[in-house]
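Private note to self, pasted from the team thread so I don't lose it. Backbone tokens:
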């Protein structure tokens, strides 16, 4: 792309970083699945033309002008603000995890058409969730679906080491379920029952609509979220701060 040209794109704002006194650097998950970064000039000024359009979680149509090092937001048309997320700590926390994982699993000039639609659907599901357990399940499902899509799918139906069909432990380091014998000596292998393993499989295989309609107990949802946090942190080799905060809410 020649210098000075502009391009249209659609995307989701998955991160915002302060730049100077009035500007923001936006990280955008584009509709094609690529990650892009752009400067939104004046976006921190109250009442500015971009202030209400480039909030975290917003879905936008953008005109990006090529700058010296980063694209510059020339125009931003708000398509979906996900307004129901704002002002609710639990929903903001859940949506922040979605965006954190979206940022860590998308890359510049690496299109993946799976990523933007599932991120958008997960944000909508965070708005639709009736209670905290369903919020936890939505977040856990999004993270596990994305990581499974990218090759980090846990083995759940049998012991990952010996194929025993009655696993009793779960280890992110080992790659999934373990039997009691194989779990010996595996640091951090968590005890799990058949119901928990079935739920983990459902997080990958069920739609968000099905998960939102399912009955889930508070303790089960919390356990699933904690297990998926360890799975994600291990596979991505990253500290997930938004995820840690969500677990504390």
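Design output:
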């Amino acid at each position: 792309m020649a210098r000075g040209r502009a391009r249209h794109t659609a995307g989701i704002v998955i991160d915002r970083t302060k730049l100077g006194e009035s500007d923001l650097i936006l990280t955008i998950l584009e509709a094609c699945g690529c990650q892009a970064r752009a400067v939104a000039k004046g976006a921190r000024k109250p009442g500015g033309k971009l202030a209400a359009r480039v909030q975290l979680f917003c879905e936008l149509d953008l005109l990006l002008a090529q700058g010296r090092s980063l694209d510059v937001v020339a125009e931003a048309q708000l398509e979906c603000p996900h307004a129901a997320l704002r002002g609710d700590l639990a929903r903001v926390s859940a949506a922040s995890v979605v965006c954190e994982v979206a940022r860590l699993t998308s890359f510049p000039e690496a299109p993946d058409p799976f990523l933007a639609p599932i991120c958008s659907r997960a944000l909508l599901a965070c708005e639709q969730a009736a209670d905290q357990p369903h919020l936890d399940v939505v977040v856990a499902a999004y993270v596990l679906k994305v990581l499974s899509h990218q090759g980090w799918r846990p083995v759940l139906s049998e012991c990952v080491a010996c194929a025993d069909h009655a696993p009793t432990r779960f280890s992110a380091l080992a790659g999934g379920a373990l039997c009691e014998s194989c779990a010996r000596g595996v640091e951090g292998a968590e005890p799990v029952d058949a119901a928990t393993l079935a739920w983990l499989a459902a997080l990958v295989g069920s739609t968000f609509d099905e998960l939102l309609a399912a009955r889930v107990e508070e303790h089960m949802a919390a356990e699933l979220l904690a297990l998926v946090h360890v799975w994600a942190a291990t596979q991505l080799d990253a500290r997930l701060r938004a995820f840690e905060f969500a677990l504390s809410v």
